[in-house]
């Protein structure tokens, strides 16, 4: 059997599959997020480990975990985990959505310079990346910085606890801003800027590489076999693309999760500039990625925090019958990454009048998220990347009306697939390839992932949305300075 582990921001999810990829069982465990100050977002890595162990125990109550031959990981990206010489956690991990590093980003982008950052790492500094977090700890917590013997990413902490192998993979390392994406190695110039050494960092593997086996004492405690081989896996978006079957050069996936992602496999290395991220993918090649920070997060805010309902089906019902009007929503509830790269951006509802009810506002919120993702598509096209179709995954893909709206906004066909497991499924597929069940990742995806529904764009609505998108951009441009 194979085990896929998806270490998310709010929970860890485990998928157990047999040798043919059939899901035998799944369990998940939630853990808390701490927001001790405005713009801070932290978690205790021990909570990840304990959550993993609880989920594994629940899975083991119904299945013989000693039959698991391979396991792998999909993990939340960018988080900074610091361990001391005795492998003790020094401080809570700074998460991907932690926004305290505006000054550090200004220093990196301004004094070091964006051109150097792109040359060294393929990317510019963003508040979510790991490098600004390292600088923040160095500046504000020098004692913790001096104690740090190991710096690692969230999923790699679990792998380290399991195997003792200090390891990471190219896709996750790409999001640190101290990794040379083009050459798939740590960037020495960036390490010098940050004041860290390569021996403080994990060894870098390709995502499908086996890094070792579960340690005997750990295996005995968890009910696993000490012969269980551990495949390092990758960052959540790279693994989600595998779980969507978007693995060939030019293949595109759109993730309608808490944050929204446009993932574009580029084959060879592409320098993205400031608009998009240029990362290694989990298939031995590269990808471009655009991220909007508040995708399903926007709908959750509107439905659960404002309207006090979690009945999304009722809230979304009838939206497609509403006309496309001029009510604009900017989904910048947590600042924004791609392509505007503005940590100070804020959400806006523009054009409200007395005729707008909750349905009209709901539709505007969904449209605003679609526009933010379309903005990423336009940025990729402006850089010479063709995008003609995409597969859609994530929790938002359960709303066919939302997917159709996205197709109408983007003007391209969108497809749903026969699974919504995303990163955990990607981890399972890496296990199956490592075990020799399939010759490579594309072969595994072709065998197990199929398209179930295709949404064609409505030409008339696309034309109307083109005009509304232009207004969406003007609202941001005319207000970004005033609300920063």
Describe this structure in words.
It is a single chain. By secondary structure, the protein is α+β, with helices and mostly antiparallel strands. The protein folds into two domains: 237 residues, Nucleotidyltransferase, domain 5 (2-Layer Sandwich); 210 residues, ATPase, nucleotide binding domain (Nucleotidyltransferase, domain 5, 2-Layer Sandwich), CATH 3.30.420. Helices cover 38% and strands 21% of the residues. It is built from 16 helices and 23 strands. Strand 10 and strand 11 form a beta hairpin. Helix 1 packs across helix 5. The longest helix has 25 residues. The model has no long low-confidence stretch (mean pLDDT 95).
Annotation keywords:
2 domains; 16 helices; six-stranded mixed β-sheet; alpha+beta; Nucleotidyltransferase, domain 5; seven-stranded mixed β-sheet; single chain; 38% helix; 484 residues
Uncertain runs are none
Query: Whole-number average pLDDT?
Result: 95
CATH topology description of the largest domain = Nucleotidyltransferase, domain 5
What is the CATH class of the largest domain? Answer: Alpha Beta
CA distance, first residue to last residue = 52 Å
Strand count, sense and closure of the main sheet?
7 strands, mixed
Which shape, going by the Cα principal axes? globular
**How would you write the strand order of the largest sheet?**
17-18-16-15-21-22-23
| Helical percentage | 25-40%
Helix and strand content put the structural class at: alpha+beta
Rg, alpha carbons: 22 Å
**Number of beta-strand segments:** 23
Query: Beta-strand level of the residues, as a percent range?
Result: 15-25%
CATH architectural label of the largest domain: 2-Layer Sandwich
Number of helices: 16
